Amino acid sequence: MNDATLTRGQRWLRALAGEAGTCGTPSSSPVAHVDAQLAGDLARFIAVVPDAENRFARARENVVGLEQGWLLARAVREVIESDAASERRRPIVAIVDVKSQAYGYREEMLGIHLACAAAVDAYACARQAGHPVVALIVGPAMSGAFLAHGYQANRILALDAPGTMVHAMGKDAAARVTRRSVEALDALGETITPMSYSLSAIAKLGLLDRLIDNVDADSPNDEQIARVRQALIEAVASARQGPRDLSHRLASDAAKTTRAASIDVRRRIAEQWNAC
Amino acid sequence: MTSQLTSPPPFIARESFIEMTARERARALLDKGSFRELAGPFDHHTSPWLPLQGIVCQADDGVVIARGTIDGEPAVVAAIESAFQGGSIGEVAGSKIAAALELALRDCENGHPVRPLIVFETGGVRLQEANLGLAVIAEIQSAIVALRQHVPVVGIVAGMVGCFGGMSLAAALCSRLIMTRQGRLGMNGPEVIEQEAGVDELDASDRRLVWQLIGGAQRVATGFADALVDDDASAIATAVHSAFARGVPSAHRSQQVDAYLARLAQIDPQSVTPESMRTVLRACADDGSTAETQS
Predict the structure, then answer these.
(1) Contacts of B252 in chain A (CB under 8 A)
(2) Which of A15, A176, A199, B136 is buried most deeply by CB count within 10 Å?
(3) List of residues 6+ apart from B92 with CB closer than 8 A
(4) ipTM of the assembly?
(5) Does B55 lie at the interface with A, CB-CB under 8 angstroms?
(6) Alpha carbon of B49: minimum distance to chain A alpha carbons (Å)
(7) What architecture is domain A3-245?
(8) Between these two residues, A68 and B1, which has the higher pLDDT value?
């Protein structure tokens, strides 16, 4: 495949783990995964990639459709099953470059909600079983696609580069739905942190463990790739020390400020849980 | 049910569940007299983000959390109120659901099972709290996956809003799903698909088509939900009792990866219709049991 046509997900998968298809899935699969060394571990790197010939016409780009959801689940569950008997659980790295879930008539009919849930389930099970799960955001991490591929991770890292973003809805659609211009939407994000599309805002919400700057997301050099790899190694080590649930996301100083309401209502429900 | 009537008698004393508020629904599903609300309206946990956008808050942020018993067993109900912001999930609303599930998990791990029940009525993420809505939905999903190893997590999609967006994934993670014919379950609402993919892909104004696609009857017939129940509070409560009594499924729907990939491979995307897919996906849910219809 011509280098210029690679998506960021494919490019970073190749940069960090090598060629998909040689030791991973066939190159025609919309979910590419490669097992490669990461410090002392054989980690599994997973990316959703374009699949021009996919049977489902609405799911030919780097989006999460029916096959993608179930194949993500399979790629993750293979690791869980292969490590079931061993004490040390291998890391799983989700390379996140997903534009959206697939929007289509057939997708709804055939249960895309369940396909995406299967991916959520697999990633959550892996984390709960002690696999360090790290999401590396190299492109868009949008809505249901990010829920299915990345949001169940112990640790979330992102490149601070143009084109990386996290949001519940694409900017154009969100502008239409809320009857605002794209510019007005951006302005709103400045004052209302959860409305922002920027990764620095995500960091302020305590949802991002590390923002990696000075990286060319489209054509990284060797030094940049090495820095990202080092960040992954540190995230894996930190995940191994931390809790297996998502409570870590509420523990940072950032979260204590911006997610005070989340923490406060949890405390209240815990206080009232047992009748006095 | 000890006797099956061929058709329900007209004007039978039936109480619509769909027409109830979230609080009434939670009360109707718990054993009589056992309802106790947590973080209720008088505790005043409201959205910190809506006032910044000139939107009036609601004192419970649209979610009712209630402890009580179901069939005499300790339980917790999380019921979403569709009348506030379309049942959308904001930071506080979603954190309430996550907290209830996380505390149920803690009790289960300590050997004190709690029956978790979620009444879905939601379009998904509340767009005014976008990224926090998405974040709390991920937290809810994580809690469901952990909790259902100990107890079945039961969900209800009664209507009229239905269950969409990230919360449709949460519903799909439940051990058992109860739906009415008026309930709809899908990831992308028909209007969103029409907007994203064009009217040729899906005409959202074609109500018959939409219900054939994602309505409760179709979802139960194709194994995406487990029980089809009439819009009657006592029939729904009976279905809830039966769902808990059946215990944790041997394999949850969302774990059956190879089986679903195999079924998907049998589908021809060009010719598949709601009718033809029934033969491929019929009643292949949890532990091989067939879907129930209760009235």
Answers:
(1) 121
(2) B136
(3) A261, A262, A265, B45, B46, B47, B48, B61, B63
(4) 0.96
(5) no
(6) 7
(7) Alpha-Beta Complex (3.90)
(8) A68
Q: How many Å lie between the alpha carbon of B159 and the closest alpha carbon of chain A?
A: 17
Chain B's closest residue to A194, CA to CA, is B131
- Residue-level pLDDT at A185: 85
Query: Can you give the pLDDT at residue B278?
Result: 85
CATH superfamily of B22-294: 2-enoyl-CoA Hydratase; Chain A, domain 1 (3.90.226.10)
Nearest residue on chain A to B204, judged by CA atoms? Answer: A105
DSSP category for residue A101: B
Judging contacts by C-beta atoms under 8 Å, the chain A residues touching residue B142 are 124, 127, 152, 245-246
The pTM for the full model equals 0.95
Distance from CA of A98 to the nearest CA of B (A): 15
CB contact at 8 A, B66 and B77: yes
Q: List the beta bridge partners of residue B91.
A: none
Is the CB of B195 inside 8 Å of chain A's CB atoms?
A: yes
Numbered ranges of CATH 3.90.226.10 in chain A: 3-245
Measured in angstroms, the CA of A221 and the nearest CA of chain B are apart by 31
